[in-house]
Design a protein that fits this description.
By secondary structure, the chain is of the alpha+beta class. The protein contains 11 helices and 10 strands. The protein binds protoporphyrin IX containing FE. The site of protoporphyrin IX containing FE has 26 residues, from helix 6, helix 9 and helix 11.
Length: 343
């Protein structure tokens, strides 16, 4: 199995358990590491020698070599907490956390009714598509609260979070540039304040696909682990299936870790599902990352999970997976159709 298939493999829980070695050099020429050992991922998260890649340098190389400008991707590099550097980073985290806390208190007022209403299709016998009938309507409402206006339905498939895959392919970056341009045009039309435009954009990049994946895969995993029996299916108290299965770092200098010699410039692919699947209970919380870039949306995501779990468990669901189709992605799970048959 290729490393970029690991995160979406059907039997990945078992695949992760059997991996040996748990760190390997994927590509000798371009020097890309894959790390699946939770303890080593934590050390990399906390190491000053492993840094977030600079997309700004990629944009500079594209401008110099092809004369192509990507102004909307450049805007993203200047506002997204994972991409801004130095002293701008804590300021971006703080500003975004304040914005998000205000949205969470607005969402809190309607969360219980919302999760109940969106899960209602699973209360009736027959076939239900988890994507279009349950998770998409839920995400649509949650992001309408974040954006303080009705979210255009096409934003559910805009995937501006692709910027976090650090893909350097020019055609893909041009495509991403177009999607970010559409997103920003809408945000600028509906939002008077520049800071709020940046925070709403940050919500869409980090939160939309990750929340959809966490909720959908959470239900899929629960149904797979619990084939129709006499007791209803339950979701775990803490999410095991993460919404961010992969993230990346680059070695800033040569360093040795766990017997591996990382060289300056090496790409490091961190497979974060290792935390949810680890036997050590203390690892589970790190599905939200660690160190200076740990997730700003953790509290909000857990609040949403808690509400979703309560209403899902109350359904006492007896169901089986009937059809499961994904869209291709090398770093996240994007669902096309997830049909379950409720008994
Ligand atoms: C749904 C489950 C979610 C999971 C599992 C998750 C996980 C993560 C992880 C692992 C990171 C660290 C990435 C890295 O270090 O490379 C991260 C960063 C981040 N997350 Fe989340 N996230 C989730 C949802 C959200 C939501 C809903 C939001 C906001 C609406 C959000 C906002 C952020 C931000 C802004 C960062 C970057 C922080 C920084 O660079 O300082 N996340 N998340």
């Amino acid at each position: 199995m290729k490393s970029y298939q690991l995160h979406s493999a059907d039997d990945r829980h078992a695949v992760f358990a059997q991996l040996s070695p748990r760190i390997w050099l994927e590509n000798d020429l371009l020097r890309a590491w894959v790390v699946t050992d939770p303890e080593v991922i934590l050390r990399i998260f906390r190491s000053p020698l492993a840094v977030v890649s600079s997309l700004t340098d990629v944009l500079k190389a594209i401008r110099e070599n092809y004369g192509t400008e990507l102004p909307n991707v450049a805007y993203a590099c200047g506002v997204l907490p994972l991409l801004v550097a130095d002293e701008a980073h804590p300021a971006a985290r703080k500003g975004f956390a304040t914005f998000l806390a205000a949205r969470l208190s607005e969402l809190d007022a309607e969360l219980a009714d919302l999760s109940k209403a969106c899960l209602a299709p699973l209360g009736r016998k027959g076939h239900v598509d988890l994507v279009s009938e349950v998770v998409d309507p839920f995400i649509h409402r949650v992001f309408s609260v974040f954006l303080q206006c009705d979210l255009p339905p096409e934003f559910l498939s805009m995937h501006v979070g692709d910027i976090l895959s650090f893909n350097t392919n020019l055609a893909r970056l041009k495509n991403l540039e177009g999607r970010i341009a559409k997103t920003l045009a809408f945000l600028r039309e509906t939002t008077p304040n520049d800071d709020d435009i940046a925070w709403k954009f940050t919500c869409l990049v980090f939160g939309l696909d990750s929340l959809a994946m966490m909720l959908t895969e959470g239900i899929v995993a629960a149904l797979r682990d619990d084939p129709v029996g006499s007791a209803g299916t339950r979701l775990p108290i803490f999410p095991i299936e993460t919404g961010v299965p992969v993230t990346f770092r680059r070695a800033k200098a040569d360093f040795d870790m766990d017997g591996c010699a990382f060289k300056a410039g090496d790409l490091i692919r961190l497979q974060l599902q290792s935390f949810g699947y680890s036997r050590a209970a203390e690892h589970s919380k790190f599905i939200f990352g660690a160190g200076m870039h740990s997730c700003v949306g953790k509290q909000l995501s857990l609040r949403i999970w808690e509400s979703f779990k309560r209403d899902f468990d109350a359904l006492d669901l007896r169901a089986r997976m009937a059809n499961y189709q994904l869209m291709p992605s090398h770093f996240i799970i994007l669902h096309k159709l997830v049909e379950v048959e409720v008994q």
